[in-house]
Amino acid sequence: MTEHPLSKRIKRHVTGRIREFFAVVSPGFEKLCFDELTSLPLSVRSAIVVSGGVEFRGRIHDCYLTNLNLRTATRILMRIGMFKATNFCQLERKLAELPWELFLPFVPGAEAGNKTEAYADFLPQISVTARHSRLYHKAAITERFQKSISKRFAQTGLLFNFEANSEFTKNLSFCSQQIFVRVLEDRFTVSIDSSGDILYKRGIKTHGGNAPIRETIAAAALKLAGYNCNEPLVDPMCGSGTFSLEAAMMATNTPPGWLRNFAFMGWPSFRPRRWSYIKQESEKNFIQIDTPLIFASDKDKSACDILQKRIERNDLSGIINVSCSDFFDVSPSKLTKQTGLVVLNPPYGLRIGTKQESDHLFHAVCRKLKQEYKGWKIALIAPDAHLVKKVPFKLTGHRFSHGGLELTLLVGNIT
């Protein structure tokens, strides 16, 4: 059977070529992601930390590996074009050179005619940021990209396909694609998102509790606090259970992307067999733990009930113990004979009431920690910078943004 000419081009320009990627990371946690990335068996040892993420080079299967395994990355982008344009005529010429058919889902030989309008309903989402450039109107830039993609596919006689690769993508929404465009000082960087849903969506939780911490932030906090996966972990204000679930996945060596799908699974370059092999190799390293090491609790019974169902559904009952208890009634000495790590994201702001009430709760939490958790490691999220100075034991602070708020992650030892 003769190989389709487009398949040959995909092999030559996409799967057979070393490509540039960018792991997007919450500011302040880039070095953690770099350490994670460089520990993976990537085909190319080339990665550098930059503001907001990690740049690295590799082959397509390295894109699979990073999406599956990186706990602190927000999404993985693959660069597909870089050029300079100072006016829209230049931009249109440059865009006409981009081989969109090598990256976006398609059906070879589809009878769609040459009407550009036929592709309007299937266009990928375009996300534009522009700074210090002569072309700065985001809507106008987006329109040029959409027209370029539609025209390219109409000319090649291909139709966007949102059910590509049969059994791996049938009836799944992850085939929806997104193009990221960054314009800085007249230079365009064009990337395709390989992740789809943002990577902190692990596939365990369908919804969060009140002000849940993101899984990527929880993973960063656990790593910065020195969680070794073998020690007890107490999560006494667990809420939706993000810290506990993330720690359980780390302890059982379950990749963060194990339970979800990715946008790259809809690409024409996607290799299902290679993806299956990568997952099979990961599964060999799973660790079965039947002794409770993680103790999650919250005074909200409905939150505990939901967490318990998630734990049972994902076969984590052996490692996580859930109880409905108020933080001030939990005594670590009754849970375990060992010291370990205590993780806390105390409620703040409108969840508590006035600022004075929020501050009072934080101070009470710190007193309880000093009295009963001496010798324990801690990861504590402080809602306001002024509270950091009020902590009665010395901790190291890491500032980060979460849901539009500036928070501080405090890690160290309780003395």
From TrEMBL:
RlmL ferredoxin-like domain mapped to chain residues: 20-77
Listed SUPFAM superfamilies: S-adenosyl-L-methionine-dependent methyltransferases
Ranges where the Ribosomal RNA large subunit methyltransferase K/L-like methyltransferase domain occurs: 202-388
Keywords: Methyltransferase, Transferase
InterPro entries membership: DNA_methylase_N6_adenine_CS, RlmKL-like_Mtase, RlmKL-like_Mtase_CS, RlmL_1st, SAM-dependent_MTases_sf
Molecular functions per Gene Ontology: nucleic acid binding; rRNA (guanine-N2-)-methyltransferase activity; rRNA (guanine-N7-)-methyltransferase activity
Listed PROSITE patterns: N6_MTASE, UPF0020
CDD domains, per database record: THUMP_AdoMetMT
Source organism superkingdom: Bacteria
Record keyword Transferase present: yes
PANTHER family on file: RIBOSOMAL RNA LARGE SUBUNIT METHYLTRANSFERASE K/L (PTHR47313), RIBOSOMAL RNA LARGE SUBUNIT METHYLTRANSFERASE K_L (PTHR47313:SF1)
Protein name: SAM-dependent RNA methylase
Organism: Desulfonema magnum
